[in-house]
């Protein structure tokens, strides 16, 4: 486990991030003729969360309570958190656009 730059800055309990408008993203790729898309497997779960968030993501079943120490699908602000991280990581790379758990490359 290695802490990432997102820890301490994004807490699913309080974080909000605007959803990108797909038409704007596609327009920025105008003039390109070859495209590919990368679909990241278990994308959200690549990122650890802080203790407060892990507590909020606890799942209770007939077999006990399980604390999720990774960002989970289904958390209302998870897409925004993931989008903001990916935009920061891929910023200024021409022809590369993150869209949630997909990366479009032109």
From TrEMBL:
Q: What class of enzyme is it?
A: hydrolase
Protein name per UniProt: ribonuclease H
Which Pfam families does the UniProt entry name for this protein? RVT_1
Domain of life of the organism in this record? Eukaryota
SUPFAM superfamilies linked to this entry: DNA/RNA polymerases (SSF56672)
The Enzyme Commission number assigned here is 3.1.26.4
Under the heading InterPro entries, the entry gives: DNA/RNA_pol_sf, Retrovirus_Pol_polyprotein, Rev_trsase/Diguanyl_cyclase, RT_dom
Q: Domain named Reverse transcriptase: which ranges? A: 1-106
GO terms (molecular function) for this protein are:
RNA-DNA hybrid ribonuclease activity
| Lineage of origin | Eukaryota, Metazoa, Chordata, Craniata, Vertebrata
Q: Which organism is it from?
A: Micrurus lemniscatus lemniscatus
Q: Which family does it belong to?
A: Belongs to the beta type-B retroviral polymerase family. HERV class-II K(HML-2) pol subfamily.
In terms of Gene3D superfamilies, this protein maps to: 3.30.70.270, HIV Type 1 Reverse Transcriptase, subunit A, domain 1
